[in-house]
Amino acid sequence: GGGGGGYISGGSSYNTLSSRPRSAGARRVQRRNRPGDRTETASVSSHTTGGSGGVGGGVIGVCHPEGLTVTLVVEGRGYGIIVRPPPHSQTDPDTAMPVVAAIDPGGPADKSSVICLGDRLVGVNGRSVAGIGVSEVTQMIANSRPTVTLDLEFDVAESVVPSSGTFAVKLPRRHNGLGITLTASRRAGPDEPLLISEVIRGSPAHRSGTLQPGDRLLAIDKTRLEHLTLEDARNILACCEDIVTLRVQKDDLFSEEESGALVVYTVELVRHGGALGITISGSEEPFDPIYIAGLASGGLADRTGAIHVGDRLLAINGSSLRGKPLSEAIAMLQNSGTL
């Protein structure tokens, strides 16, 4: 977070694999949200905070819920967030979740850049607040010093973007920017586009439903980037107005996924302290693909029957590998815990 007011706790994920063993053989599942998770909304991407502006502008469309955990550090009298009961017509009182009704400009919640008006509050410091009155929830937050950890649910637009060609997306600029990190390919020539290497969970970029690591950033507002350096682009983003228009081209992997050329599935492995039995290959070039290079015979991964040499590894425990070099992917596997 900016200025020490708040910081994000928890990883980012975007269209990624999760896993669960076929304990009796790993299951294959389509990497798509369940139809039941989609909802119609009149404010798909129009979340605002303290006058920051909205994403998109309240266009009716389809969205799906995602979760986020944020830890805020208290400043002055509190955390700069007010919650209210949800609309009575939309929820069961026993499972009702308070919604974010106001965010103090410049406060810890605002500085986190990932909390927006209308977000549903799922938990406070690990305790579910479903069905709990707003006054009690407010007191729970106020009594938590010097930090509070909030579990939130928010909507991400099911945006329709072209699998090839370019498109424009308008995003509100927050305290910490748009929620994207840029990089340049090590092999890039002077006219090669800059790449989005990270999309921060809960940020305006993430909520738009349009941007992913690997996307090519072609222009910021009316400034084309083909002859500019990475530092030039960062400076332009830092000086943008409240609403920023990005011109983007999807990466090749997105095109393959949307065309059905790739079969994408998830596998969960419970290691029980043992090795996964996987060797991966790739390079330190962030956008080179990472593949399964070997499987230990009879090892955990081999026994699932779902993982094969030559498969492309897209994500580990919900964290996308787009924009990550081989060394980081290896570290993620080594630190993946028991699941």
TrEMBL record:
Record bears the keyword Cytoplasm: yes
Assigned keywords, A-Z: Cytoplasm, Repeat
Highest taxon listed in the record's lineage: Eukaryota
Database matches in CDD domains: PDZ5_GRIP1-2-like
Gene3D superfamilies: 2.30.42.10
Region entry Disordered, spans: 1-57
Location in or out of the cell: Cytoplasm
Alphabetized SUPFAM superfamilies for the sequence: PDZ domain-like
GO cellular component term of the entry, any: cytoplasm
Biological process (GO), any one: neurotransmitter receptor transport, endosome to postsynaptic membrane
Pfam families, alphabetized: PDZ
Name of this protein: PDZ domain-containing protein
Native organism: Meganyctiphanes norvegica (Northern krill)
PROSITE patterns: PDZ
Chief localisation class: cytoplasm
Transmembrane regions listed in the UniProt entry: none
SMART domains reported for this sequence: PDZ (SM00228)
